[in-house]
Structure formats: structure tokens, C-alpha cells
Amino acid sequence: PGQPYKGGDFFAFLPDNRGGRRTAVLLKTAFEQGLTFQIKSFNGEERVTWGLIPHKTSWDGGKARNGYPDAQYLREVCTVL
């Protein structure tokens, strides 16, 4: 608190279907409550990073690379939210 930090560009993807739209509403609420991001120290520099809520940051690569396909993602993220 009270220290400068660096921001960043963050992108996440959801499917355009009923489950994806429902998840988007929950993610918006989490964002408004300050739960989406956190600040961490990297090499003595404070930076904004993703928080504990899992996000799909790629269209592909599967679960191992935070991408799709991942059949369980919507269920898992809704459980966290």
C-alpha cells in the first residue's frame, strides 16, 4: 500500500454461449469487488498480476496453457466465483 506499481494488459476469453455469458456476469462482479487482480513483487518491482480466479488467456493450448479446449473450465471457475 502506498507504493507505485506497474500495470499491464490482460486478456481473457469465454465462449459465447449461455454458460459463458453467466460466467461473464460472475467475473464482472468479482472485478467490481477487487478480486480479479493482485499486486506482486518481481525483481524488486511491484506489478499487477492475475488474482486467484482462473482465466482462459488463450483460445488454444488446452488446460495446460490456460486455453481451450477445457471442458471443465466453466464449472471450475463458477465454483471459485
Automatic annotation (TrEMBL):
InterPro entries: Deltex_C (IPR039396), Deltex_C_sf (IPR039399), Deltex_fam (IPR039398)
Single annotated GO MF: ligase activity
Chemical reaction(s) catalysed: S-ubiquitinyl-[E2 ubiquitin-conjugating enzyme]-L-cysteine + [acceptor protein]-L-lysine = [E2 ubiquitin-conjugating enzyme]-L-cysteine + N(6)-ubiquitinyl-[acceptor protein]-L-lysine
Protein name: E3 ubiquitin-protein ligase
Gene Ontology biological process terms from the UniProt entry: Notch signaling pathway; protein ubiquitination
Record carries keyword Cytoplasm: yes
Domain Deltex C-terminal stretches: 1-78
UniProt keyword terms in alphabetical order: Cytoplasm, Ligase, Metal-binding, Transferase, Zinc, Zinc-finger
Functional pathway: Protein modification; protein ubiquitination
Name of the encoding gene: Dtx3l_0
Annotated EC: 2.3.2.27
Family from the record: Belongs to the Deltex family.
A cellular component term, taken from the record's GO annotations: cytoplasm
Phylogenetic classification of the source organism: Eukaryota, Metazoa, Chordata, Craniata, Vertebrata
Main location: cytoplasm
Source superkingdom: Eukaryota
Location(s), subcellular: Cytoplasm
